[in-house]
Amino acid sequence: MEDIRAWGDSVAVGVEKAFIGKRQVIEKILVSVLARGHVLLEDVPGVGKTVLAHSLARALGGSFKRIQCTPDLLPADIIGVSIYNQQEGRFRFRRGPLHASFVLVDEINRATPRTQSALLEAMAEGQVSVEGKRM
Predict the structure, then answer these.
(1) Final residue before a domain boundary, out of 43, 62, 81
(2) Enclosing H/E stretch for 54
(3) Residue 111 to residue 128: CA distance in whole angstroms
(4) 37, 64, 68, 103: which is deepest, by most CB within 10 A?
(5) Beta strand 102-106 with 129-130: parallel, antiparallel or unpaired?
(6) What is the count of structural domains for the chain?
(7) Where a domain ends, among 27, 43, 62?
(8) What pTM did the predictor assign?
(9) What is the DSSP letter of 85?
(10) SS3 (DSSP) at 79
């Protein structure tokens, strides 16, 4: 238990170099990370939610991507898409931002139900479906 506390403190100190003043929020997010959960951050614009998520990803050695939801955002925009490579003569999958360790999804309520469904599949099942295949 002390090892986990020491780990959490060291990560929080690293995050606080970029994001100052909300230690409890950082600790709650770290609990969620340990539980392999997800976090919903609700706050007014401009308080540093993106900085917080990016700093946490960096402190934990993970990748970070941000998705801005709009009414025209498609599931393929966040999951990825297969693109034909003429030189290789085959399709190559180009991963979307949903494949990052830390993904900040801004204004999720603006996305279409299909896009929200793709996000929820990734969150609930830890996988995505691309062209009928689960990844």
Answers:
(1) 62
(2) helix 49-59
(3) 17
(4) 103
(5) unpaired
(6) 2
(7) 62
(8) 0.83
(9) E
(10) helix
